[in-house]
Amino acid sequence: MAFVSAIDEFEPERPRTTGELYFKGLTFLENGKTTEAWWTWTKGVLIHSGDQTASHYEIRQIKGRPYLFLEWKSGDFTISGRKPSYYVLRSEQ
Description:
Oligomer: single chain
Strand content: 35-45%
Number of strands: 6
């Protein structure tokens, strides 16, 4: 849905992101599993076994609708040490 530098930047009525987003979504399954073999989750953290990153995620209610905010730890974070940005997805919670 959107890609923002900080969670508080997200406005559902005015997503700032234009163009195609790289990350389309993810299904969280029981027991810490996901639909992708390289990702597992636990207590607000999504773990990527290949990149060896642990990204914070949270679900926030905005105007009565749940949104998932996921830290995106790309090379900007892992190589350059920059603060991670966030993907914003509509949650099917």
